[in-house]
Structure formats: C-alpha cells, structure tokens
C-alpha cells in the first residue's frame, strides 16, 4: 500500500520528470528552429501548459484536503503508470531531436515511423491520457481523474488536428501514416 510520503515522492518524481522533459524540449526546439522548423498551435499551447499544471494542483488538493487514500486497485494503476513511463521513454528516444512539447514541423523532414510510431500516430498523447487517469486513480482522487481526463480529451480535440494539418502541409505525413490509427495500435499488416 502507498502512503502520504510515497504519494509526495511520486508527485515530486513526476514534476522533476516534467522539468527534464521541458529542458529536452527547449533544446530540441532550438535545434529544430535552427534547421528552419515552423511552429504551429501557439495559441493553445499556454492552455495546455495550464491544464498540466492544474492537474498537479488538483491532485494535491484532492488527495490531501479530501483525505484520499490509496486505491485498493493500486497495483493496476501503478502498473499503468510504469507502462506509460516506458512508452514515454520509447517515444522520446524514437523521435530524437524531433520530440517536443510544442508543434514544430521541419519542411520535407522524413516522418519517424519507428518505435511506437510503427503502431500508432500519437503514442505520446496516449501516455498523457494514461497518466491523467492512472495517477489520480492510484490515490482515489476520482474528481481529478474525471475532470482532467475530460479536459485532456478536449485539448487533444484541438491539438491533434492542428498537428496533423501542420505535418500534412510540410511533410509526407499522410502517406507515411496511411495505414495507422491515432490511438488504436495496428499490430497486423
């Protein structure tokens, strides 16, 4: 069973992970812009950052103020969280310098179709979706899980079309991912 100290350690781990990711993203952004990359979706990006920040605030408040305890299904939720972390690392390694938290597109760049991108168009968004449900559920923070899963869906309904339109306009994205789904893995060719 996970206690309050374990909860705080996990949250600190996740927040530190996010700061490391932002550092990597900033480095990749600088490199991509030097190569001539174009940024898309600037208007919604600040709201996405706010969404992710408020997720942690909500998680902390709900868990401590409402005195939530560890879910009896904690092995399931911690397993989902660990799966998401492994998938996140696989995504970042697969995209290399092209991985970012912003929508940056380099004209005529070869679309990455290795790693989890062999099976899905948007595995990074799948990672976030799993986390926004599994982390709060691990600590019985149902309101946070429901509210932020819903808000994340709304954000992705804005972000994914912008990203796909940008990729289609400057790369061979559509042709490369013709046989691939957004979130449902295609295992058999």
UniProtKB/TrEMBL annotation:
Keyword terms: Membrane, Transmembrane, Transmembrane helix
The protein's name: Isoprenylcysteine carboxyl methyltransferase
Cellular-component GO terms for this entry: membrane
Primary localization class, coarse: membrane
Transmembrane segments: 6-24, 45-66, 72-93, 145-162
InterPro entries reported for this sequence: ICMT_MeTrfase, Metal_cation-efflux_comp
Organism for this UniProt entry: Neobacillus cucumis
Recorded topology in the membrane: Multi-pass membrane protein
Any Pfam family hit: ICMT
Subcellular location as annotated: Membrane
Superkingdom, taxonomy of origin: Bacteria
Gene Ontology MF: a single term: protein C-terminal S-isoprenylcysteine carboxyl O-methyltransferase activity
